Amino acid sequence: MAKYTREPINGFTHLFGAILSFAGLLILVIKTTLENPSPVALTAVIIFGISLILLYSASATYHLVIAKENTIKFLRKLDHSMIFILIAGSYAPFCLISLNGFKGWILFGVEILIAVLGVSFKLIWFNCPRWVSTLIYVVMGWGAIFLIVPLYKSLSTVGLMLLVGGGVFYTIGAIIYGTKPEFLKLKKLEFHEIFHIFILLGSLCQYLCVLLYVI
Predict the structure, then answer these.
(1) Which of 11, 40, 52, 80 is 20 to 30 A from residue 71's alpha carbon, by CA?
(2) pTM for the complete prediction?
(3) Binding-site residues for Zn(2+), please?
């Protein structure tokens, strides 16, 4: 398998994530249409689902495809840029449905702006130190902390635990990515494979939160 793919474990874990994201988007759209058929709610879950699909598809493609160096560099930039898209897209259901007001729209707008700036930043200075990218991802991801009280009122305790739990998984993954800790090296897994697993867990938690407590 390795001769046909560059990084099979990294690639197939996120290919699995992409497939789940397609199915997950369909489920979200059906449930929203049946239970909360407003244009805003439907748009929010579509944005969320598409951001998951884009992240995992870009990541799987980058890690699986064997191609020329310039193509790999382009795919890597796309992979990293999609992280900003996923973070901003993940805010959509919480800001536009759970918060459903001025503060929610403002927070979502700020996240979109940061995502646009982040993608531009990656395209201009792709080889920046890992800690710089990691810090931006983490700060962007935890922006919802400023509206934790209204989110709690909307989501309930378990819903908020899923939202925060997803953030914790994402953050641990980001720290692993940024620091490349040697002690995490296992027989067949290195830091990047473990990083991918934490990202999947973060997405799962927040997806379940949206499915069960937002729509």
Answers:
(1) 52
(2) 0.93
(3) 63, 192, 196
